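User: Can you predict the 3D structure for this chain?
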Amino acid sequence: MCTWWLNFKSLPMDHSHLQLHGWVRLSVSRDIPLIEIARSIGEPVPPRPDRPILRELRPHNPIEAESGSLSAILGKMEFPLHTDCAYYRRPPSHILFRALSPSSVATRIVDGINLLEKCNPRIFSSIFRVRGLKKYFLCSMINGNRIRWDPNCMSPADNMAESASVEFANLLQEIQPIRFDWQETESVLIINNRRMLHGRESATDDPNRLLESILVHEKL
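Assistant: Here is the predicted structure, written as C-alpha cells:
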C-alpha cells in the first residue's frame, strides 16, 4: 500500500499512482481542507443538486437515513462494492475520503475493470435500467475503460443482463478487496469512481465512524 506525504506547496499533486492503479492514499496535514485537494483533480460536485459538496458520512439506522440510500436499506451493516452516484448519466470521476475521527471500520475497494477479464463477454453488451434522479434511463455496465455498478439503482433490462449481473455479483463475493482502515485521521484516500468499486465494512461495532467526502469531475 502506497502512502505519500503531501503539503500545500505540492498542489496540484502528482497523479501518476492514481492513474496507474485507480487509487492513492496520501498522508496530508489536517490544515489543508479536503476541498483544496479535490480541486487539484478537477471540479468538486455535490452527490445531488440540492446537497452540499462536502459530505459527512456516518452510520445510520434505516429509519434515520435518507430515503433510497444504502443506509436506508442496510443501516449499519456492510455496504456492498459499488459505483458512487451511478444514478447519474455521467457519474463523478473520483471520490476523496478523510476520517474526522479514528475508526476501525474500513473502506474496501476493488479494481472493477480488472475483474471484467474474468467475466463472460456478454457482460459488455448487457443493458441495465438505471433509476436516475428524475427518470429512468438505459445504459451498459461497461463503457470503454469505465464501469458502472450499483444494484441499488440498477436492474437488468433483459435476460442477458440478468445472467451477467448474477455472474458479476458472485465474482465480487470471491475476490479479496484492498482494505483501508481509518486509524490515522491525516490519511486521504482518493479513488477513481469510474474504475474502482468501493464499499464499507459493517459499522455495527463502531457506530461513531465519521468520514468527510467530496466527489469530483476530473479536468478534461
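The two ends are 28 Å apart (CA to CA). The chain has a mean pLDDT of 88.
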